[in-house]
Amino acid sequence: MPDLSLLKTLCTTDGISGDETAVRDRILQEIRPYIDDYSITPLGNLIAFKKGASRPKTKLMAEAHMDEVGMTVTHITKEGLLKFEPVGGIDPRVLAGTSVTVAGRYPGVIDVKPIHLIDRSDQCKAVPITELYVDIGAKDEADAERHIALGDSITFSPFFDMQHGTIKSRALDDRAGCFLLIEWLKKPLPYDMIFVFSVQEEIGLRGAKTAAYTVAPQAAIVVETTTAADIAGVSPEKQVCHVGKGPVLSFMDRATIYDREYFRMALQIAENAGIPCQVKQAIAGGNDSGAIHTARGGIRTIAVSLPCRYLHSPVGLISEEDLLHTAALLPLLSEKIAETDPSVLQNI
């Protein structure tokens, strides 16, 4: 079992899209002893190179994004309340009454009208984001401005818990993917590889787009989390994937049609190794593969994802076993891709 205290550190470090510096610094601190070279791109991606035992036939990049969804301060009212806009896709239903942290150090709460002041007809409706504020307890506008500036980041408050074989935390999307890459590159590699920790996935796959152009790999493995809707009230055909049933492979989503040979290859490798694995049962969502696979002349791409309940909310949930099984699958898949000529399609 890898040391999950690192995952806790990653998940409880603030880093919304465009403000990932603290996360990147922590990752670099962790990986520096294990890599041969690295660079930080103008947009903020961390690109690390690790030499393996041999040069690969296929230049391979593994990628996970550092950013999390959150909010940003857009206005301070006369009363000292903070107006905000979301950074990334956030469901307004999860916001009212939620504990948050502003500018990395000021705790606050998103306001919610007392239930006894709400018309009965409105009690089941989500409050629009335009009607919400963050309350940090400031006395007035001047008091708030002594601590807060426009553009400051707002994150869901840190939370991390491990019980019942699960991990519950904010920002598992995609600090769990970053954690897997870190643990992977700490070990000896059979082939040279590039590891990318990218920025700004949640607002349009921007870091991955520039990283893929810079690295110019022939193939890419994107390590992500994906929606698990295996909860009460969701019919089986709409549950997408299941926590506890292994890493998730996609053949298609809203941003990518994945490399069919790599998709079949990954399923076969998992079966041969006795690693539980599942196929995403919905054409929904997307990830950095959408930007990577169309970069330059095209990059053969596959995504390996952790099933995660409650994505883009204050607390997500993943399985410890899924984390371990994903960690086991990634090096096997990468070795097969790296040793195969990228222009040759084989019968797997």
UniProtKB/TrEMBL annotation:
Binds 2 divalent metal cations per subunit. The active site is at E201 (proton acceptor). Zn(2+) 2 binds at D173, E202, H312. It holds the Pfam family Peptidase_M42. Its cofactor is a divalent metal cation. It comes from Yeguia hominis. This is M42 family metallopeptidase. Belongs to the peptidase M42 family. Zn(2+) 1 binds at H65, D173, E224. It comes from the Bacteria. SUPFAM superfamilies: Aminopeptidase/glucanase lid domain (SSF101821), Zn-dependent exopeptidases (SSF53187). GO terms for biological process: proteolysis. Keywords: Aminopeptidase, Hydrolase, Metal-binding, Protease. GO terms for molecular function: aminopeptidase activity; metal ion binding.
